[in-house]
């Protein structure tokens, strides 16, 4: 029997998908100190696309947020932390990204679903190619073009959207 899904699941399926990234090395604060369902960015073209989606209504933007956690041996473990629909974009102000090593222009805010301490990604066969294709997540907010990664993200997120 197929489980009943929350309405938010269906919005996820029909959205325009983006990738966001957080690492303590760049942001100077741990992901757990960030507010849920927010993302700081300077990517003007992606902001324009998301702003247009918000204005038009209907199809929503979907941002998948990945956290990179450094370990003592210098390696990085990658976790899917949340997915959200941005419904508000504002100029970043002092205090939005305390201690960040770079200045961010915009803050996207919205509603979504967290995945607790995260769903580990880097053990998946497709992940090394995905990481490389996305510039080791150095592009900031970017379109999620990889259909394999998108399908995997949806598979991993699905249990969080089952009606209880």
Element-level helix/strand string:
HEHEHEEEHEH
Beta-strand residue fraction: 25-35%
Give the averaged pLDDT, no decimals.
89
Our count of helices gives 5
- Largest sheet descriptor: 6 strands, mixed
Query: What Rg, in angstroms, do the CA atoms define?
Result: 15 Å
Order of strands across the widest beta sheet? 2-5-4-3-1-6
Helix content range of the residues, please? 25-40%
What structural class results from the helix and strand content? alpha+beta
Give the total of beta strands.
6
Instruction: List unreliable stretches of 5+ residues.
Output: none
**Cα separation of the termini:** 14 Å
Coarse morphology: globular
From the structure above, extract its key features:
5 helices, 34% strand, globular, 26% helix, six-stranded mixed beta sheet, 164 residues, alpha+beta, single chain
């Amino acid at each position: 029997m197929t489980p009943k899904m929350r309405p938010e699941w269906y919005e996820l399926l029909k959205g325009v998908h983006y990738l966001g990234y957080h690492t303590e090395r760049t942001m100077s604060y741990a992901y757990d100190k960030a507010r849920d369902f927010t993302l700081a960015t300077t990517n003007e073209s992606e902001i324009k696309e998301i702003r247009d989606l918000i204005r038009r209504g209907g199809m929503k933007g979907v941002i998948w947020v990945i956290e990179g956690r450094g370990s003592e041996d210098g390696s990085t473990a990658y976790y899917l932390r949340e997915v959200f629909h941005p419904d508000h974009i504002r100029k970043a102000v002092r205090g939005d990204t305390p201690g960040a090593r770079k200045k961010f222009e915009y803050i996207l805010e919205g509603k979504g679903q967290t995945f607790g301490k995260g769903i580990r990604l880097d053990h998946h066969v497709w992940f090394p190619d995905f990481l490389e294709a996305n510039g080791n997540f150095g592009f900031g907010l970017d379109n999620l073009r990889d259909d394999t990664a998108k399908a995997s993200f949806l598979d991993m997120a699905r249990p969080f959207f089952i009606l209880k």
